[in-house]
């Protein structure tokens, strides 16, 4: 069964990011029902920021006492990973960034310990949903792509695409049927691309 891991980077449940995500997941399910979807809320995971303690260069995994090692395993076993984030001060949410930075333990597993926590041969597709309150700004979303790109590289996942939606302070996304349709179409396309990639 195909596994989809969706990570909600907004601390607000049921708002712009989650509505888009749910529509995208609907589009995926319109193509295939043989999928298992797991949604994680970065705010509920409560990942503490990486403190650069360096322990992960000496011992496999992260020594911090939260669920991050279980999340590494979720990345490993997923076939499609969807990240979502609101734009906060032209970057991603702190909740999601804390989670991403903890992937330093994955980096160490590969390059310091030479025993990768991630199966590097498995095919994984990655996708990003990101929302902004303002109308398109110069640099408004430009920080997002390089952050997500490195995240996906760290978990040996092919970064397939983005759904960026702006101007949401004016009209929330649930009132914008066109954007909801776009999200469903993006889900359908992602699933079709994934199926065609074998
Ligand atoms: C702390 C904070 C910082 C924000 N910074 C920006 C920003 O720099 N640019 C922007 O366009 N919107 C900004 N916004 C608006 C959010 O990106 C926007 O409302 C987003 O759609 C919220 O997603 P959500 O409804 O899923 O929580 C900010 C909102 C908050 C709470």
TrEMBL record:
Pfam families: FMN_red
Full protein name: NADPH-dependent FMN reductase
UniProt xrefs under Gene3D superfamilies: 3.40.50.360
Molecular-function annotations in GO: oxidoreductase activity
Domain NADPH-dependent FMN reductase-like, chain residue ranges per copy: 3-112
Keyword set, alphabetical order: Flavoprotein, FMN
Coiled-coil residue spans: none
